[in-house]
Amino acid sequence: MRIARFSHNGAITYGIVDDTDLVVLAGDPMFAGFDTTGERVPIADVALLAPVIPRSKVVCVGRNYRDHAAELGNDVPAAPMLFFKPNTSVIGPGDAIVLPPQSERVDFEGELAAVIGRIAKNVPAERALDYVFGYTIGNDVTARDLQRSDGQWARAKGFDTFCPLGPAIETDFDPTGDAVVTTRVNGDVRQQGPISDMIFSLADVIAYASAAFTLLPGDVILTGTPAGVGPFTAGDTVEVEISGLGILRNPARNA
Ligand code: MG
Ligand 1 centre and the CA of 109: distance in Å? Predict the structure, then answer.
């Protein structure tokens, strides 16, 4: 089942994607279940929004693909390297990534995103995927120059608009499968890597993170990016595709 969040006639609501239509849901399915209103709306008539606004945090994993760690001259970490993006960085499909004047190099990082569906604390890896509501696509947009100069990553990865999510949440997706993350800039392929190349699996990451802090329904986990990261500039369009999850497409503009 694929769930979208959208704006239609001035209201924000959720729907189940059914071919070219949305079957409108009565509430947020993460909390209110899947009761429908009986209404159907053509997808072409709505504006898709970020499928989730994280309730408290976006948890990200750095250097979780060997080839990506190597391309930036880093070693593979011995344990998941976690950092946060603020929920204010989230935008939806089609929204513009705004390039801040503080940075001279902003990079795309296409990533598999998992949406947490239940309160998770001290969850063992064997049961970790039971706590996932569904899956979507994320772009861990990064001001690479500020990441280097700041040391800490909060500012470089936390600017408003630096966390595109979408286009929808897919509940039937196998994060242990061989889906491929592909990132294109203006149609040119820049990244292409299978999620099976992750060093730490999503289940491992949930276990490791939830041993430290509580994950809340609506929190999002970005699982790291494959090799090929690089810059984009104003006027470019960045799209991240993951087989089975669709395409997340965002234009970029200057602030
Ligand atoms: Mg990343």
Answer: 6
Expressed in angstroms and rounded, the spacing between residue 157 Cα and the centre of ligand 1 is 9
HEC string of the chain equals: CEEEEEEECCEEEEEEEECCEEEEECCCHHHHCCCEEEEEEEHHHCEEECCCCCCCCEEEEECCEHHHHHHCCCCCCCCCEEEEECHHHEECCCCCEEECCCCCCEEECEEEEEEECCCECCCCHHHHHHHEEEEEEEECCEEHHHHHHHCCCHHHHHCCCCEEEEEEEECCCCCCCCCEEEEEECCEEEEEEEHHHECCCHHHHHHHHHCCCCECCCCEEECCCCCCCEECCCCCEEEEEECCCEEEEEEEEEC
Please tell me the predicted confidence (pLDDT) of residue 69. Answer: 87
Average pLDDT of the chain to the nearest whole number:
97
pTM, 2 dp = 0.97
Tens digit of each residue's pLDDT (9 = 90 or more) over 153-190: 999 999 999 999 999 999 999 999 999 999 999 999 99
Whole-number Å distance, alpha carbon 83 to ligand 1 midpoint, is 9
Distance 119 CA to ligand 1 centre (A): 24
* Ion ligand 1 residues within 5 Å by Cβ: 109, 140, 225
Separation of CA 44 and ligand 1 centre (Å): 31
Residues 54-66 pLDDT 10s: 989 999 999 999 9
